[in-house]
Write a structure and sequence with these properties.
This protein has helices at 2-7, 10-15, 21-30, 34-58, 68-73, 75-82, 94-99, 123-136, and strands at 63-66, 105-106, 115-118. The radius of gyration is 17 Å and the shape is globular. By secondary structure, the chain is mainly alpha-helical. A hairpin with an 8-residue loop joins strand 2 and strand 3 (115-118). The chain has eight helices and three strands; from the N terminus they run H-H-H-H-E-H-H-H-E-E-H. It has two domains: 1-60, no CATH class; 67-142, Nucleotidyltransferase, domain 5 (2-Layer Sandwich). Strands 1-3-2 form a three-stranded mixed beta sheet.
């Protein structure tokens, strides 16, 4: 069950193609496949839902940060996630968002009440550091 949930569900399970967002976006441009479209829509909906929930729990926020593979490199996904967050003060600069891939930059408009940023991360390095800390029995830094 664990292998099934971790490898065959989510984007792959819905699209029937892959769990790689870059490939799904390419495939969608070539073929308007309903399963691929649905997988992308659900991904963006869930991200937007969790951002909204966090805003509600925290009483708002100063910024939304996009990071990791999809967050850093998929402007279309960032735009789709932010659609519908205008109520919270998030306003994306469409041109700026489209230009940014894998570099640190603000993608919200100058007058956006809640800023949106792309901030690259080195996930493998963070995992390696956490692994070393666990092996050495050191506490995680606060």
């Amino acid at each position: 069950m664990e292998a099934l949930l971790n490898t065959q569900c989510g984007l792959l399970g819905i699209s029937g193609v892959t769990n790689d967002m870059k490939v799904l976006l390419q495939e969608l441009k070539q073929h308007d496949d309903r399963r691929i479209r649905l997988a992308i829509e659900i991904f963006c909906y869930r991200a937007r839902k969790y951002i909204g929930a966090l805003f509600a729990c925290m009483g708002g926020a100063e910024a939304v940060i996009f990071t990791g593979g999809v967050g850093e490199n998929a402007p279309e996904i960032r735009a789709r996630i932010c659609e519908g967050l205008e109520w919270a003060g998030v306003t994306i600069d469409a041109n700026q968002n489209q230009q940014i891939r894998g570099q640190e930059a603000q993608i919200s408009t100058a007058d956006s009440k809640v800023h949106a940023w792309v901030i690259p991360t080195d996930e493998e390095l963070l995992i390696a550091r956490d692994t070393v800390r666990c092996i050495l029995g050191e506490p995680h830094p606060a």
